[in-house]
Amino acid sequence: MIEVRPRLLLILTENHTLVDPDDLVGLVRLATDAEEAGFDAVMASEHIVLGPAAGALGRPRNLREYAAPGNQDPATCWPSSNVLLAAVAAATRRVRLVMGAVIAPLRHPVLLAKELATLDRLSQGRLVVQPTVSWHRDEYDALGVPFAERGAILDEQLEAMSALWEHTPASHPGPRFAFEDVYCVPKPWRTDPARPRMWFGGQSMHPALLRRLVRYGDGFHPFGAASGTDLATLRAGLAAAGRDPDGIEMVGGTRAVFAGSDDTADIDAAMAGFGDQIEAGFTTFCVKPSQHTDDPAEVRALCEHIVSQARRLEVPAAR
């Protein structure tokens, strides 16, 4: 089997120890550094608003750790991923633009379909979208969306957006979102299937996640390390639906270890588990630069080092 190099993805958001939260242009510079160093993709995640419960579990011991349910300062800066990635699209030519953790139920699917198709067309097909329901009830309450219905809302949104992207005019019968003979243009860059590339993820391989992956998914991006059971369930679900289990992009990442509460992590140690992840089928690896440097001027060199180290690894081309 032909071997290819792992793909590398730089996380742009939640890098507040590296780039001042108000310096959104600095995040665009991180993206250009990643592209010039040879990274395949950059990613921006989101919250629209946070409430007091965002920090209910306290802050991480080291602020460079990943943002997670309950460990965030409610005043954390989460810029609009759609607007930020549009700026990145204008400043770059090659890297994929991963809109990670788009909390779809907080938006109307007609508007969301238009915005995603526009960004995908603007970037000439570089957009990757990861729709999710997220975890923060305060956010749903602020936008008047029923938290308990978020999974059902997302499922209907995916159907509605698919209709808008595939058909002109498009119709969708509801029950929450209903429209008939509407024209939503521009369409996404890709035509078969007619949608931006989509990843899905979560903390476990629950039935709704598996269903969305099998029907719409181009990639699986779990929150944290996926269990062997989760991976087996995914492969079985894809095979049962007639899809190639090796045809889906598997997204892993570095595993940073911090010696102290204000220390950065060694990048080579954080990449040490890439081989095991590749053996488990993972092909794309996320890196959060603030975990490894406090100096924006060092990001380009950091990315170049990561690319150099990754070149020593290979993954099967079929994956």
Q: What are the secondary-structure elements, in order, as H or E?
A: EEHEHEHEHHEEEHEHEHHEHE
Distance between the termini: 11 Å
Strand content: 15-25%
Number of helices, counting only DSSP H or I runs of 4 residues or more: 10
Main sheet strand line-up: 2-3-4-5-8-9-10-11
Number of extended strands: 12
What shape does the CA trace take? globular
Which residues sit in consecutive blocks of at least 5 with pLDDT less than 50?
none
Q: How many strands, which pairing sense, and closed or not: the largest β-sheet?
A: 8 strands, parallel, barrel
| Class from secondary-structure proportions | alpha/beta
Radius of gyration from CA coordinates: 19 Å
Helix content: 25-40%
Quote the average pLDDT: 95
Question: What is this entry, summarized?
Answer:
The protein is of the alpha/beta class. Helices cover 34% and strands 16% of the residues. The protein is built from 10 helices and 12 strands.
Could you explain the architecture of this structure?
This protein has 10 helices and 12 strands. With 319 residues, it is an alpha/beta fold. The strands form 3 sheets. An 8-stranded parallel β-barrel has the order 2-3-4-5-8-9-10-11, surrounded by 5 helices. The protein has a two-stranded antiparallel sheet with strand order 1-12. A two-stranded antiparallel sheet has the order 6-7. Strand 3, helix 2 (81-91) and strand 4 (96-103) form a beta-alpha-beta unit. It is globular and about 55 Å long. The N and C termini lie close together (11 Å). The mean pLDDT is 95.
Keywords:
319 residues, alpha/beta, 8-stranded parallel β-barrel, 10 helices, 34% helix
